[in-house]
Design brief:
Layout: H1 2-7, H2 11-39, H3 57-60, H4 76-86, H5 92-104, H6 111-160, H7 166-212
Helix pairs in contact: 2-6, 4-6, 5-7, 6-7
Length: about 220
């Protein structure tokens, strides 16, 4: 189709069509990128959700301070339980039941200390996992930015091609279509990824409340 237009009377219209397609593609990319860029304080953060680097204990924990003694390094039981509680594969109902069972087995007078240790270790694991997710999201966004730049470069090449370069146009147009399809699919996945830090915040809050419910 492109070759027939190049040979016929509608050559200027074909060039105009390619330029309009290029501008349309660029506009689509800009409309996708601007909302996240306008909201994010961190230039590397692509999500509409506000970036919170760490879950602060003071925002979700109503128990004793998490000082240097609140560690599970010397308690395999707490370390193992905290790992189960923080794991996203563990349903919150099951996690709550495990907390209840653990709290019932604690001796009087030591309950607050052990529960605080449990919360501290659980929060440390959640924050570690959450930081890994945030780093992964930023790397994912860098890949999207590189792909967007490649699409823009393809648009510029298309606009600069001569009328009789039909074969080159076909090749660049196919490349652009494929890149934009990948960009769109990855953008949908990015929306899912951006929810994960928020879900971990909610999990941390629920677990903190469940553990604190057993404090003396």
């Amino acid at each position: 189709m492109i070759r027939r237009e190049c040979k016929g009377r509608r050559q200027p219209s074909a060039v105009h069509g390619w330029r309009m397609a290029s501008l349309t593609g660029l506009w689509i990319l800009t409309s996708w990128l601007l909302p996240a860029a306008a909201i994010a304080a961190d230039p590397d953060w692509p999500c509409q959700q506000r970036l919170v680097p760490d879950i602060a204990a003071g925002m979700i924990w109503s128990g004793p301070p998490l000082d240097s003694t609140a560690t599970a390094a010397d308690d395999p039981e707490i370390r193992h339980l905290a790992g189960n509680l923080a794991a996203r594969r563990t349903p919150l109902e099951q996690a709550t039941a495990e907390i209840d069972q653990f709290a019932r087995g604690l001796p009087a007078g030591h309950k607050n200390e052990q529960l605080t240790r449990l919360f501290a270790e659980t929060l440390a694991i959640l924050n570690h996992d959450r930081s890994s997710i945030i780093d992964g999201i930023k790397k994912y966004a860098h890949g999207q930015e590189a792909l967007a730049q490649r699409i823009s470069a393809t648009n510029e090449k298309l606009a600069q091609l001569a009328i009789d370069q039909a074969q080159e146009r076909d090749a660049l147009a196919a490349q652009r279509e494929w890149d934009m399809r990948i960009y769109s699919d990855r953008r949908s996945s990015l929306s899912y990824l951006c929810e994960q830090p928020v879900l971990l915040e909610k999990r941390a809050f629920t677990l903190a409340r469940a553990i604190a419910a057993h404090l003396e």
